[in-house]
């Protein structure tokens, strides 16, 4: 049970060292001499709170029969088949070698997700290799030092979604099996929507906000409506931190900060805690609904929470709750627009929904906005379209010249989604003013229709 992670790469890049680091025991022998026999048992790995099984492919160079590459390839393919996710390791100091490229190809041809690790990158060593690693076409490399235990937080964040996904799938399969048994015993279709729903991955939504913004009322209203539609408790399962909810046939996992607080057994005062609570919920979520109180919205703490969501790169929707208490709605809406211009520039175009959790108004519109924000967050733009756009920008609004020299933006590509993250390759990125980056981000947002999502744009040095 749990995820299986294969460590793949040519000899000597540090696979066994990484294996030992993850398993925490000296299970595999580390040796500089190629051809030394090694133990290849799967290990039970831990990384922070993640638990998974790791398989090391080191040691394959000692078999006798065929060519080295042939043996490595067979071994690698076997490990890939057994795994849920592949850690592809290169030696950042050595850069990308032809053998790395060869194995990258093998990995790429399999359908398994891959995390590219540039090892031996302690200190700032291996920066050159890190840059070269992009050329392998396996996404953004994570710099680590297996020997010195550096960069493990990066590895953790890269692995987290895969490990969680496997656990969720296993849970879903177990649930399905359980429901199948219930159906057999009763001889009738008890709760088909649950069986169908558990097979699908729910959208993870956190509802955060200051104390008293109305989060609990809103969540209860959401669940209450569902109860009326589908009968008592159908489709609803509750654990201490999340609630599964069905909204128009779509599966949603709601994370509720109150639940998280209970789970963490934190005793401090509410007022002080809400930002820390929010952060915990945000980390679980794909889309975050920030609930504001319409009678005093956009207070300092609200802005802190919004800022946190943007920094964590989550899709975002703003819910102006208690709208039923507002008498002059036109004036209130104008004030919200003003606040939007003043405070929400980095998530320009974010959906702002007015609602009343208490009276159950505006919840459907809120959920439509949530799914809309999720779609934008997943935007992927082809490299060809991006570079056509970049060419146009450079023609009409090139970067300002610094000391008579212009920074050259050469090329760009989307490195990640959720949120969209773009790399622009250029000479002397350090000379580009912040204002120019803002201009690029705003223009990208408009041109490719990505309202409200945090957009990341980083520069990579390259000629
Ligand atoms: P494998 O053949 O891919 O399993 O590689 P090993 O784990 O046996 O490591 C090969 C060599 O690289 C050993 O001498 C390790 O000590 C060294 N090594 C592994 N990880 C690191 C690292 O993070 N930094 C440095 N500088 N050396 C490392
Ligand atoms: P939480 O701390 O964010 O979970 O807030 P609660 O859900 O406990 O709500 C705080 C207070 O605001 C309670 O007295 C609720 O009845 C009230 N409240 C919540 N939502 C609304 C709403 O939409 N309209 C009005 N008028 N009151 C609300």
From TrEMBL:
Q: Which family does it belong to?
A: Belongs to the TRAFAC class TrmE-Era-EngA-EngB-Septin-like GTPase superfamily. EngA (Der) GTPase family.
Annotated residues that bind GTP 1 are located at 9-16, 56-60, 119-122
Q: Which NCBIfam families match?
A: GTPase_EngA, small_GTP
The record's subunit annotation is: Associates with the 50S ribosomal subunit.
- Protein's UniProt keywords contain Transferase: no
GO terms in the biological process aspect are:
ribosome biogenesis
Query: Mind listing the UniProt keywords for this protein, alphabetically?
Result: GTP-binding, Nucleotide-binding, Repeat, Ribosome biogenesis
Q: Where does GTP 2 bind?
A: 209-216, 256-260, 321-324
Q: What is this protein called?
A: GTPase Der
| CDD domains, per database record | EngA1, EngA2
Role description = GTPase that plays an essential role in the late steps of ribosome biogenesis.
The UniProt entry, under HAMAP family, shows: GTPase_Der
């Amino acid at each position: 049970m749990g995820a299986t992670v294969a460590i793949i790469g040519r000899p000597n890049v540090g696979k066994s060292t990484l294996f030992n680091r993850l398993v925490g025991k000296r299970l595999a022998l580390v040796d500089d001499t190629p051809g030394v026999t090694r133990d290849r048992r799967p290990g039970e790995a831990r990384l922070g709170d993640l638990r998974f099984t790791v398989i090391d492919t080191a040691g394959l160079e000692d078999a006798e029969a065929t060519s080295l590459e042939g043996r490595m390839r067979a071994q690698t393919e076997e490990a890939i088949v057994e795994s849920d996710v592949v850690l592809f390791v290169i030696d950042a100091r050595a850069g990308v070698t032809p053998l790395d490229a060869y194995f990258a190809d093998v990995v790429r041809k399999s359908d398994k997700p891959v995390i590219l690790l540039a090892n031996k990158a302690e200190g700032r060593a291996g920066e050159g290799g890190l840059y070269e690693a992009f050329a392998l076409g396996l996404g953004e490399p994570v710099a680590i030092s297996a020997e010195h235990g550096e960069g493990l937080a990066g590895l953790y964040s890269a692995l987290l979604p895969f490990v969680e996904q496997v656990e969720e799938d296993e849970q879903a399969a177990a649930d399905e099996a359980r429901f199948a048994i219930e159906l057999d015993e009763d001889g009738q279709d008890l709760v088909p929507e649950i069986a169908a729903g558990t097979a699908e991955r729910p959208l993870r939504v956190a509802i955060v906000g200051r104390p008293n913004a109305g989060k609990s009322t809103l969540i209860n209203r959401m669940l209450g409506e569902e109860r009326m539609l589908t009968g008592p408790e159908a489709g609803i399962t509750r654990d201490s931190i999340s609630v599964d909810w069905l909204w128009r046939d779509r599966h949603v996992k709601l994370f509720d900060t109150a639940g998280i607080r209970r789970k963490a057994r934190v005793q401090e005062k509410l007022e002080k805690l809400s930002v820390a609570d929010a952060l915990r919920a945000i980390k679980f979520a794909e889309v975050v609904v920030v609930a504001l109180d319409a009678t005093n919205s956009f207070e300092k703490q609200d802005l802190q929470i919004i800022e946190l969501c943007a920094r964590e790169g989550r899709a975002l929707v703003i819910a102006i709750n208690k709208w039923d208490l507002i008498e002059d709605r036109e004036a209130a809406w104008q004030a919200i627009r003003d606040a939007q211009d003043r405070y929400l520039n980095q998530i320009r175009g974010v959906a702002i929904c007015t609602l009343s959790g208490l009276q159950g108004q505006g919840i459907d519109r809120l959920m439509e906005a949530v799914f809309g924000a999720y779609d934008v967050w997943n935007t992927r733009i082809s490299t060809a379209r991006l570079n056509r756009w970049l060419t146009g920008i450079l023609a009409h609004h090139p970067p300002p010249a610094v000391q008579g020299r212009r920074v050259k933006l050469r090329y760009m590509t989307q490195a990640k989604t959720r949120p969209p993250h773009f790399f622009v390759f250029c000479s002397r990125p350090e000379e580009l003013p912040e204002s120019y980056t803002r201009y690029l981000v705003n223009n990208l947002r408009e041109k490719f229709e990505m309202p409200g999502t945090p957009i990341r744009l980083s520069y990579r040095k390259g000629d």
